[in-house]
Predict the structure.
Amino acid sequence: MQSEARRIQATIADLAAINADAERIAEVAASIWREIYAVLSPVIGPGGVGALYQRAVYVTRAADPGLADAHEDAPHPGEFAALQRVLSQLSSAQVAATNGALLQAFCDLLSNLIGVSLTERLLRSVRNLPPGDAAVLESLP
Amino acid sequence: MTARKATIHRLATGVPGLDEVLGGGLPEFSFNLIAGSPGSGKTTLAHQIMFALATRKRPALYFTVLGEPPLKMLRYQQQFEFFDSEQVNASIRFINLADDTATGDLDQVLTRIVAEVEAHGPAVVIVDSFRSVMLASQGDDKSFMGLQQFIQRLGMLMTSWQATTFLIGEYLSEIDPNPIFTVADGLIWMRQSLHSNSVVRKMEIMKMRGQRTLPGLHTFRISSAGIHVFAPVALAAPTETPKAPQTDVRLRMGVPELDQMMGGGLPRGYSLLVAGPSGSGKSILASAFLLEGARSGETGVIAAFEQRSTVARGRALAELIRGDRVGVVDTRAPDLSVEEIARLLITEIHRLKASRVVIDSLSGFELALAPTFRDDFRESLSRLVSSLASTGVSVLMTSELEDRYTDLRFSPYGTAFMTDAIIVQRYIEVDSRLKRVLAVVKLRSSDHSNELRLFSIDAEGIKIGEMVAGREGLLGGQPSREQKKNTRGPGADDD
């Protein structure tokens, strides 16, 4: 996994490590995806992010069939409500693993298209945790 | 009270040759249109300028509209050396306007552009492509603002925000003037001209307010380094005072007897044409000229258009090339222009501080040119010779000359008048043997020999021998023994 993707995924992994419940991890995951969307859509366009995300879901669901339902996000790029719903139905460890695989697939696709260095440069702007979602972490035990 | 005039700063575009063509750089805060057909290099030009001008303090905003998908644009543009990923999101911001444009409401597009400009205070703003904005606004009665008004307001806003702006436009027609032509301060038109099987990229500055641009079509090339424009050579270095030839300083040619024939050698700064048929030894004389220069501590440059390796030019010359005492201009690129060769030569001359230049041969040079330039070969060559002369170098050019024996020619291009000196080599038949003769035909403002001298070529180079004694009609190719005058009676000519 690329260093920026690893950094982004670390928040999820940390939550899984302290056994936060799946619903909360899924919530954080969705907010991270919204952040990724906010960072990338001005550069590659909402359609571009949407298409890459759909492709990443398609690639990842082979190993994780439950993820197929995340396709329902397609008409609402940038919302990730279906992803959050799918993830929240898994165990904490599974949420982290599935989201990690999805993020990995997404970053690989982006790197294939625009190169590793530009991908890393763009993802560097994804904050560790969006301020609006800080409450999610604070509310954890 | 004296009113002081506004100062227009000119920005260095970072595109080699473009600043010269623009007449000294790009006027700051100008509102420009880059137009041309798909594939003509508009987006590349905009990117190259943007990466050169953007700083963290004064960044560049690149608005992408519906046209080329940004993912693809980034994928391909990053292949260029000027594309520095680290600048993205730091000094360069890409902003996709697809959603705003899709509404067809130009007011919304403008509001969004202005909001981003206010947020980032950019020095450079690029809208790619303008055509998409045009299409989005078409046939939409809801649009509060017409296209012309949009452009006028955009132009005014960008200039007020002190941003130098580029709109990229496709499929714009020169015949059907678009309102933007009037509003824009600068109009850069990029073309791909097709002639026979070759395509040559050309650029024209159709308009640039406030400065004298170089008129005409300027060829450019796109390589991994980006766009390189080849400005006309004669005007390439206006700051340099042309160096006049020095007839009192003579350069040795590397063939001592030839120096004698030339009254001591080639005057410094002269251009010399060596014309002769195939195999007569023109390239050998050219090599001798460079080797002699190296012996006296001078450096040289060679533009070789004949398809052979440097080793074939002789071990000694190959050694000089390896040691960077003689620079070689790469002439293998397809569809060359005279301006490109001139630019390559002059760059190499400056790099090596060279004083001797060889172009071998003009015939090969003409073949290497894109067909579209061959019609103007004489004019272009004349410009090349005068621009080389202005740098103070001495130039030796070779030219293939078919031996016709019916007339006396010095070059197939009528180039003889362009050069200061001419040496002609020819074959003659003597006693059933093919022999070589040469003569110094012209040496401007200098005494020179008028002898036709036999010469031979061996492992050490050219050896000049005696005049052909007792023969006449040498230039006819088949000399006859000279006949003593008055030994035959009238009517003898009739046999």
